[in-house]
Amino acid sequence: xxxxxxxxxxxxxxxxxxxxxxxxxxxxxxxxxxxxxxxxxxxxxxxxxxxxxxxxxxxxxxxxxxxxxxxxxxxxxxxxxxxxxxxxxxxxxxxxxxxxxxxxxxxxxxxxxxxxxxxxxxxxxxxxxxxxxxxxxxxxxxxxxxxxxxxxxxxxxxxxxxxxxxxxxxxxxxxxxxxxxxxxxxxxxxxxxxxxxxxxxxxxxxxxxxxxxxxxxxxxxxxxxxxxxxxxxxxxxxxxxxxxxxxxxxxxxxxxxxxxxxxxxxxxxxxxxxxxxxxxxxxxxxxxxxxxxxxxxxxxxxxxxxxxxxxxxxxxxxxxxxxxxxxxxxxxxxxxxxxxxxxxxxxxxxxxxxxxxxxxxxxxxxxxxxxxxxxxxxxxxxxxxxxxxxxxxxxxxxxxxxxxxxxx
Length: 408
Prior knowledge:
Elements (H helix, E strand, L loop, with lengths): L4 E4 L6 E2 L1 H14 L7 H5 L6 H8 L6 H17 L6 E2 L3 H10 L3 E9 H11 L6 E5 L10 H10 L6 E5 L2 H10 L2 E5 L6 H6 L4 E3 L3 H21 L3 E5 L2 H12 L3 E4 L3 H6 L1 H4 L5 E3 L11 E6 L3 E3 L4 E5 L3 H5 L4 E9 L3 E2 L2 H19 L5 H5 L14 E5 L8 E7 L6
Parallel strand pairs: 1-4, 1-6, 4-5, 6-7, 7-8, 9-18, 10-11, 10-12, 12-15, 13-16, 15-18
Antiparallel strand pairs: 2-3, 13-14, 14-17
Helix pairs in contact: 1-4, 3-4
């Protein structure tokens, strides 16, 4: 099953909030003459909601009225200084961007009170999260799975299609209770043993490891799906390996090239000079509509076994389905989306705007990077093909996925 969505914990997973939390706690403690806490003390008490944090921070036997007053003072101080020392963990912004490029939807679930959780996400990750839930009145906190199920319903995904990423035993128990895949993050507030004891199925040491984990899980699903749909499937760990492989398949043959930044980056055209009959309008040669091999990429490939391509003239997508004996579709790992709808979104919302900007088109998407479904005369998104199985008449159709980011 492919991974369609990711749920992140907030404190200790996306953001290092410890400095601002400790400052706000000590503001409340100081006003009541209670002993101050260091950051390690606060770190061990984070994760079960702010009331529990304050209850564990005041001296034993503190009256409820004083606890309530401390809680109010903590929230007032925290709201005022929410983003003074808080920052994303190193590598997290790159992870968020990589997940976005892969068409995976993202959400946040925290035991931090709702207003603070929403403000932090809007400040550090504007427009990136489909849902942000903090502690809300009448809704049980983590590890109760109620909020997790609400997020699944909002995103339209099943438990087995979600990675739940957190740094605490509470997060691991939440994931297991909801049926999601529990991923423990070691850069946060808890250690490996506590995460494993709470049910972590995967442990990641650095934020960048999340990208590798997602890609590995998606690859397993995609390989099975493409082979079931009748495609030949090849994985090359690097662009250099892919170039060598493709050049070997094309030597001595008549080869047509579809306009593609991925194919251009591989350098296959140059590698085949004098070794094959080459036709690529990008390199000054004429296009052909039939031959032995057609080389192209796709705007997205789905882990469910489909390819998605958008074109302006239609020459590239036409040649990918008719006229050649064989076709090789070469894609970087960044183009592997969870399912067909997300692959289509990726083609329109990521590949389309980036290509329009590259080609200096005067379209709205070339300016702001967002698809407007415009009617511009320079629009390049005019035809879309979704390939669900190899076209009849072609002798060979192969998906070559590269374990590096390539193209748009």
